[in-house]
Amino acid sequence: MNSVLVIDKPAGLTSHDVVNRVRRVLDQRSVGHLGTLDPMATGVLPLVLGNLTRLAQFYTGADKGYEGVIRFGFATDTYDSDGEPLGPPQPVTLALEQMQDLASRFRGVIEQMPPPFSAKKIQGVPAYKLARKNKEVDLKPVQVEIKEFEIVGIEADCARFLARVASGTYMRSVAHDMGRELGCGAHLASLRRTAVAEFTLDDAHTLESIAQAAAQGRLEEVCIHPRKLLPQLPSVTVNDETAAAIRTGRAVNLPELSRAKLVKVFYGQVELIAIATRIAGTLFHPKIVLASEALPSSVVNHSA
């Protein structure tokens, strides 16, 4: 099965846990995800299945949207609510205008220290493995971009926010750093991912609904329509002869897309068979071939 599913990940599961569950439900080994979510976080987790796992390379830098809550008064070792407090809670009084001003300092391109409990590698070892063993975690600041970050409400010691960030940004670190700026400590109390690239909560389904759809033979109903993938790329629908050439990795002439650098190539309305890159003029070569099924031999022979 070559498809994209968007899961509404529940709290308490790792992204890999979700992948394993979907593998079992669909009885399909080739399943990957497009961006890790921490176990405590919920929301949009796109999964690529079958040959469409090859699309993952086009989503490595995808923007991500979030909504969540930052609790002020104490920091934790993981920078979120799953961690151990680093000190006793302090009484805090938050004002919306004050917090909005503080949030503005984190917008744009900034230097950010990743959390010690993260997948960032230190000499090939994930930082969280060292942190769990109470070993020194020597991480370096990295440059990230926070494109949107707004505090939208205050309740007691908590601030609700909306954010849109570039890939590689840790909202846990944002919460921790805001607490440090105020001198009272803070951590990420909850986080829900609302978007990854073109995928949103409107596209998302629970693991239970996916299992039910699979059992009832309705899986196509919950998959993302291939025409909605990578909307920034133009698409073209090819005939039998051109499709046969693309499936065997040969360059083809696509005169209707003379200015595009990368294009989505469809055979029919729903079968995405390749992502092609322009060589020169209207000549395109398949960058990745997504369709493994061969056309009838008569078509292949005709196109040879």
Q: How would you portray this structure in words?
A:
- With 304 residues, the chain is an alpha+beta fold.
- It folds into three domains: 3-62 and 198-227, 2-Layer Sandwich (Pseudouridine synthase); 64-196, Pseudouridine synthase (2-Layer Sandwich); 233-303, PUA domain (Archaeosine Trna-guanine Transglycosylase, Chain: A, domain 4, Roll).
- It contains eight helices and 16 strands.
- It has helices spanning 15-26, 96-104, 127-132, 171-182, 207-215, 219-222, 240-247, 297-303, and strands at 3-9, 31-33, 42-49, 64-72, 108-112, 121-122, 125-126, 142-155, 158-165, 186-196, 199-200, 235-237, 252-253, 262-267, 271-280, 283-289.
- The strands form three sheets. Strands 1, 2, 3, 4, 5, 8, 9, 10 and 11 form a nine-stranded mixed beta sheet that branches. It has a five-stranded mixed beta sheet with strand order 12-14-15-16-13, with helices on one face. A two-stranded antiparallel ribbon has the order 6-7.
- Strand 6 and strand 7 form a beta hairpin.
- Helix 1 (15-26) packs parallel to helix 5 (207-215) and helix 7 crosses helix 8 (297-303).
- The longest helix has 12 residues, at 15-26.
- The protein is elongated, with a radius of gyration of 23 Å.
